[in-house]
Every structure is written in structure tokens, then in C-alpha cells.
Amino acid sequence: MDAFSYELKNNVLNAVPEPMVSIRTSAYNHAGYIRECIEGILNQKTDFKFEYIIGEDFSTDGTREIVFEYAEKYPTIVKVIHKPNGGHGDAVTCGLQHATGKYFKVVDSDDWVSHDYVSKMVDSMIENQSDVVCCDMEYVDDDENRTYSSGGDFSVVHVDEHPEIITINNSACNKLIKRKCFEHIEFPKGIWYEDLGSIPMILSEAKIVSKVSEPLYFYYQRSGSISHTENSKIFDIYCSLEKVRQYLSEQGKPASMLKAWMSMYV
User: Fold this and answer.
1) What is the b/e burial string over 29-66, where b = at least 16 CB atoms within 10 angstroms of the residue's CB?
2) Alpha-carbon distance 58 to 195, whole Å?
3) What is the DSSP letter of 155?
4) In the chain, is it the N or the C terminus that has fewer CB atoms within a 10 Å radius of its CB?
């Protein structure tokens, strides 16, 4: 079956009414990791409906075949989108364009989540009427060493009372976000630090941010990842910082929020 007919068939099969959560993974040449990622999503212990959008970016290492395998096995959950690889920001934007759930979640293809991630994050979202829910994470390296990473020292925050909340851990991975929060915001394309150039803006648009104080997301730190690579693109961080500063100014956000953000330059 060619890519076009497969996608057409898959989209028809995936007419799932009103999923609560849309989960997006970009799959590009991660054959050695992606099974654990996909299994973690599909084995969620939850009564909430969710859809799993996998952006298959024309991999060449067998990732493509693995993705098709799961899409055939779980046709009412898995939706495969074919697109050229355009980086993390472009993949998130593409996932949002195909998402139908009330809430949106990013999972990188070499990471994985706890089996109760969806249930605990959605419970917090509903209980606290949140726009964004964060959780703690664990970083796992090539030697299986684990490092705890806090998602922030808070439980429930009203953003208008605590504008500094926009400076918490800016990873998209440890957050469940109401899809409406992305209405006027796109992840930067073609630069590093895409999350830094978008998550603070999303937090600035939220009314309530809550947190599940457990490591529900497991982030695999490969030796060749951005954080371990010497490259001139590390200076893209300033592009992302400036993008947020401009947004806060143009949207007329309070001076206290802009001041909190400016501290990030340090």
C-alpha cells in the first residue's frame, strides 16, 4: 500500500468522536526508540478518549514501518500524517492542525510517559479548571542514569496574580495544554529552542496553571542531542527570547510579566 492510500484509509478509520486529548509525536529516524514511546501512549490506563497523531517524516531507518504497524493495529486511535521533516516547531504546528481533542500534548519519539499520564493530567485540568497542567520529569541518559527535574514549585496558580509563572520550565513535553491556547501562537520553525519561543507565550494566555507533582514524563538525553552538541545554533536562544518579549509587549501584557521574562536573558 502506498503512502497516500494508507493515509487516506487511516484518516477514514480514525473518525473518533470528540477525543479529550490529542497526543502528537514526530517520527523521524528513531527506530531504536519509538516502540517504547508508542507503547507508553497506547497503554494509558484512562477512561478519557484520546487520539494519537504521529507525524511520519519520511524516515529511512525502519521507523516508518513501525508506525504503520501500530496504525494498522489501533486504527481508531492512531492517525498518521506524512510530511517532510521540518524540525520540532514545524511538527508541533502540523500536529495542531490535525488535532481534534480539547487538550493537546507533545511526546518526543525517543521519550516516554507514565501509564497514568493522561488520567492524572486531565484530572488536574478538570479539577482546577486549568488551561495548562505541568508535571515533573526524569531525565534518562545512555547509561540509564536518572535525574529528577521539577516542573515548578506550585500546585495551582492564577496567572494574573503570579505573572512570573511564565518563566517556569519551558519544555512543551511536561505540559498538557488546552488547544484554544494555541489560537494565535505558533512554534518557531527552523531554529533551536522552539519551546522557549512559544511556551511562555502560551502560559501568558492561560488563566490558571496547575501541577501534578510527580515525574510522569521521561526525557531521554542522548549524547547527540542539542543540549550536548556544540553548534552555532545555540545562539538561536536569543531569537526565541526576543520573540517572546515582542509578543508580551504587543499583546499589552502587564509590566510585571514582562519584567519576569526579562530575567530570563540573564
Assistant:
1) bbbebbbebbebbeebebebebbbbbbbbebeeebbeb
2) 23
3) S
4) C
169-178 exposure pattern, b = at least 16 Cβ within 10 A, e = fewer: bbbbbbbbbb
Q: Across the strands, what pairs with 137? A: 149, 217
- Output the nine-digit C-alpha cell for 50: 484520546
The predicted-structure confidence for 155-175, as pLDDT tens digits, reads as follows 999 999 999 999 999 999 999
Helix (H, G, I), strand (E, B) or coil at 7: helix
Crossing angle between the packed helical segments 63-73 and 3-13, to the nearest 10 degrees: 30
Q: Please report which helix (H) or strand (E) contains residue 148, including its range.
A: strand 146-149
Nearest to 157 by CA among 183, 178, 132: 132
Stated pTM of the model: 0.87
**Torsion angle, alpha carbons of 146, 151, 152, 153, to 10:** -60
At 19-29, the pLDDT tens digits run: 899 999 998 89
Cell triple for 45: 490506563
- Phi and psi (nearest 5°) for 220? -85, 115
